[in-house]
Amino acid sequence: MTRANAIYDVSLDQCASLIEASGSTVTYLLQGGIGIGKSALLGQIGKSMPGHLQVYFDCTTKDLGDIMIPNLAEAAGGTPYVRFATNEELGMHLCDQPIILMIDELGKANPSVKNALTRILYERKMAGYTMHPDSIVFATTNLGAEGVGDMLLPHQWNRISVLTVRKPDHMEWLEWGISNGIDHTLLGWVRDNPQLFQSFEDVNDAEQNPYIFHPRDPSRKAFVTGRSLEKASHIIKATKGKVDDMTLTAALMGTLGDRAAMDLMAFVRLANDLPSHASIKNDPLNAKVPASAAATCMVVYRALSTMEADWVDNWMIYVERLDTEAQGLFANGVRSPKYAKQSVVLLNKSFTRWVQSRAYLFGADQ
């Protein structure tokens, strides 16, 4: 099922770089799988361009009458005429400042809405308004092969540039998860299960991968995506110590699907045997070292996610008691450009000494 041109599918980071560089003159339509993070690009691009106002337009909630409405005006001689007031969510009234307009779910919009947006997509104009010359416009939609109703007409395709966005792999998602508060139990499970991020286009038989969305199995209502994993993380963290295992399993089944929930629960139970945060912070020489590789990974991910300056020293004592693979996992986590707490670790003297004694962990990528 793999497409011949799949080698040219781009990552979300590559999309962001392209939009930042040329999105003021070209509208890119990002087509990609369900729940991979397309909509989150608005915030990511906004962080890189703080001088631009972020504007979000959701096509799925709009009809033609929601785009613009008549607004009577008079010419200098008193002759009446009709102007149009545009929807606030389009940001067209913000002509004096640059904006980043994300038109979300363009492919699912009503045909009349698609037609109304065509001039914005190509000329940055609508109803007598012209966007600031530095404004950026991009749009998102799902893959047509997913069968969720995304389609455009030829004249609409011709006004935009289309990019196919690939799924992140499990390691890319882990980098994001470490810096965005994803539960360490779930991070450990993802690391051990790269198939969670497989594309249905690479799976001929839906039964070959029971975790992911597959259009050939319409009965699969809950499945694993980056979005549903983030929801599962919220569930695990919020219910810890408050609900029993059966209730938690039921909630995860409704979020990730039956098979994924059952497998994840094995990691949740394993997490009960991890050394406590407090024991590592207060007594790193005697804190428990997990017996299994999976549990050790969870300890490392928990440390990376929660690291603060006041306990880096004790963590560096503890990490020396872990095996080389776990130490390498920690080293790779710290050196990731996306690691949100990188400066907290890098400025620590104990970490610096540790790096000097284990330079091989920080050499060129293996």
Quickly count the domains.
2
Sheet with most strands: strand arrangement: 2-5-8-1-9
Tell me the number of helical segments per DSSP (H or I, 4 or more residues long).
15
Strand content: 5-15%
String of helices and strands? HEHEEEEHEEEHEHHHHHHHHHHH
Radius of gyration equals: 25 Å
Give the gist of this structure:
The protein has 366 residues and is an alpha/beta fold. The protein has 15 helices and nine strands.
Please explain how this structure is put together.
With 366 residues, the chain is of the alpha/beta class. It folds into 2 domains: 6-165, 3-Layer(aba) Sandwich (Rossmann fold), CATH 3.40.50; 170-362, no CATH class. The chain contains 15 helices and 9 strands. The strands form 3 sheets. The chain has a 5-stranded parallel β-sheet with strand order 2-5-8-1-9, covered by helices on one side. The protein has a two-stranded antiparallel ribbon with strand order 3-4. Helix 5 (170-179) runs antiparallel to helix 6 (184-191), helix 6 (184-191) crosses helix 9 and helix 6 (184-191) packs across helix 11 (293-306). The mean pLDDT is 92.
